[in-house]
Predict the 3D structure of the following.
Amino acid sequence: DAGVTQSPTHLIKTRGQQVTLRCSPKSGHDTVSWYQQALGQGPQFIFQYYEEEERQRGNFPDRFSGHQFPNYSSELNVNALLLGDSALYLCATTALVTDTEIRMNTEAFFGQGTRLTVV
Amino acid sequence: GQNIDQPTEMTATEGAIVQINCTYQTSGFNGLFWYQQHAGEAPTFLSYNVLDGLEEKGRFSSFLSRSKGYSYLLLKELQMKDSASYLCACMDSNYQLIWGAGTKLIIKP
């Protein structure tokens, strides 16, 4: 059973360019969350996708957009890159399990991340 | 606002015990997670607490007090490979994970 896979693992872009990062969820997981992690910091939530729609969004500008496909995989797009966008971008997937009136979220499984460097 | 606080850095000796504390304020509460993250790698799951009390899993234990908004991760019989960052994260009423900045744990021989 493949876990969460992200591509590419490393990327160097020039300021002003656009980038697309990809995430394939763990088998059985249907919810994808994207995080940005700057060096020495905890992950910062960007947004979450479920049923091909953006459900939640963190405090990130519109330059950050995403998409989820019918097979639950997801893309993160960043336009007009800034030097400050350099970070580790993590994708985490979960499965929402409904149990009568209780909705419980399983642990989040992370991909290895994409290290983005903007020069 | 929502906030997770944990110490920035801790140092401990190989073979000893260390406790990493986490306090939280979130909009609703659906559980608290601890993750381990080695430098340059993705976080990996350690524990999940949703009820008050202690959850033990081998050398690692996690405690939760919902009334105090407090949790700790206890690491016993420390090994050099335990040197890593330990992240505390709370799940809020929207089932969204709110993350702390992490505690960097340094193990000395």
